[in-house]
Amino acid sequence: MSVYSDLEEFMQHYRLHGNLAWWTTPPTPKGYQVRVACPCGVVFERWVLPKDAEEDLLRSQLPAFPS
C-alpha cells in the first residue's frame, strides 16, 4: 500500500472517534514524516520519501482532513 492509501484508510476508520490531530516534520533531503493522532490514542506514522510519486498529493490533501 502507498502512504496515501494507508492514510486514507486510517482516516476513514478513526475519524469516527472525533477530531484527528495531524502534523508533518519539515522536509529534508531524505523525506519527511507524517503523523495523525486519534483521540482514542492510535497514531498513524509514516515516512515519505522524496521520490514518492504521491508526495505532492499527500501534502495537498492533509489540510482537507479535519484536525
Task: Explain how this protein is built.
The protein has helices at 3-14, 55-61, and strands at residues 21-24, 32-37, 43-48. The termini are far apart. It has a 3-stranded antiparallel sheet, with helices on one face. It is elongated and about 35 Å long. The mean pLDDT is 83. It is an alpha+beta fold and 67 residues long. Helix content is 28%, strand content 24%. The protein has one domain. It contains 2 helices and 3 strands, in the order αβββα.
Q: Which blocks of ≥5 consecutive residues have pLDDT under 50?
A: none
User: What does the radius of gyration come to?
Assistant: 12 Å
Tell me the major beta sheet.
Answer: 3 strands, antiparallel
Order of helices and strands: HEEEH
Distance between the termini: 24 Å
Shape: elongated
Strands, total number? 3
Physical arrangement of strands within the biggest beta sheet:
1-2-3
Helix count equals 2
What's the domain count? 1
> Into which percentage range does the β-strand content fall?
15-25%
Mean pLDDT: 83
Q: Helical residue percent?
A: 25-40%
Which structural category do the helix and sheet elements fall into? Answer: alpha+beta
Offer a few descriptive terms.
3 strands, elongated, single chain, alpha+beta, 67 residues, 2 helices, three-stranded antiparallel beta sheet
